[in-house]
Amino acid sequence: MRFSVLGCYSPFAPYKGACNGYLLENNNIKIMIDCGNGSFSNLQRFIDYKDLDCLIITHFHGDHFNDFEMLRKAFFLANESGERRNPLIVFAPKEDPAFEKIAAYTELFALIPIEESLERDHRFGDMVLRFFKTKHTTPCYGIKAKKGNKKISYTSDTGFTRLLAEEIIDSDYLFAEASLLEKDKNKTIHGHMTAKQAGVLAETAKVKKLVLTHINPTYNVNLLKREAELSFEGEIEIAKMFKTYII
Ligand SMILES: [Zn+2]
User: Fold this and answer.
1) Whole-angstrom Cα distance, residue 56 to residue 120?
2) Residue 136 Cα, ligand 1 centroid: separation in angstroms?
3) CA 81 to ligand 1 centroid distance, Å
4) CA gyration radius for the chain?
5) d(CA 247, CA 37)
6) What is the pLDDT of residues 205-245, one digit of tens each?
7) φ, ψ for residue 64, nearest 5 deg
8) 106 alpha carbon to ligand 1 midpoint, in Å?
9) Residues 123 and 102 sit within 8 Å (Cβ to Cβ)
10) Contact assessment for residue 177 and residue 158, using Cβ atoms and an 8 Å cutoff
11) For residue 154, how far is its CA from the centre of ligand 1 (angstroms)?
């Protein structure tokens, strides 16, 4: 599996950065996870968007969703020119009223409510995806992907809960949101984790490698990393624009 960073910032993207978006690939299968602003443009650094097999919208907050309109226009043109006929599979939370807005484009997208997909495996070749609910201010879902004995997990947005550790247990890579420094701990009530909490989660779930993402561009990332190191003994890195992690 290959996991590439198309955008890793929140609540806004710095110069040459982008908000949350990732590309998960397995052999020829290409899945875009989240489409925060700037990420759709960056997707095209890696692949032709017309070759996408699936888009997963973990939740409808702008820093994970704002490029959807651009992606929709690109798919509209590809459909019109005949370059892309089959609808793109899109997983998204139906409980959110925004779901209805994207449900209208039936020619372009085959929408699947995540809520109705929670209890089952989604097979993409020999890779299996599963969703799990997170603790956020709006319906939001994390993702875990398994291939053989390899596992990668992405928390999307979430407050800290030990239940998450059961979902992501033994991941080779955990991409965890680390929205806050300890000094801003009071903001965790908005459904986010501190870097230190991301470390506790990784330690509890015995993950091998922790990648901190959903980075506030006003923060010192070295401090963010140091705070995660207080609670996690394994390897930690800060998500890097355009980096591909091979799992
Ligand atoms: Zn959010």
Assistant:
1) 16
2) 7
3) 35
4) 17
5) 26
6) 999 999 999 999 999 999 999 999 999 999 999 999 999 99
7) -125, -5
8) 26
9) no
10) yes
11) 13
Q: What is the largest CA-CA distance in the chain?
A: 54
pTM: 0.97
For residue 127, the domain's CATH number is: 3.60.15.10
In terms of residue numbers, what domain contains 72?
2-246
Instruction: Tell me the Ramachandran region of residue 16: left when phi exceeds 0, alpha when psi lies from -120 to 50, beta otherwise.
Output: left
Report the separation in Å between the CA atom of 60 and the middle of ligand 1, taken as the mean of its atom positions.
7
Total structural domains in the chain? 1
Q: How far is the CA of 148 from the centre of ligand 1 (A)?
A: 31
Residue recorded with tokens 């879902």: 141
Which one, of 219, 243, 236, lies nearest residue 6 by Cα? 243
Three-state secondary-structure class, residue 7: strand
Q: Looking at the predicted structure, is the pLDDT value of residue 47 above 90?
A: yes
Starting at the earlier edge strand, list the strands of the sheet with 2-7: 109-113, 88-92, 54-56, 29-33, 21-26, 2-7, 244-246
How far, in Å, is the centroid of ligand 1 from the Cα of 11? 9
Ligand 1 geometric centre to CA of 84 (Å): 31
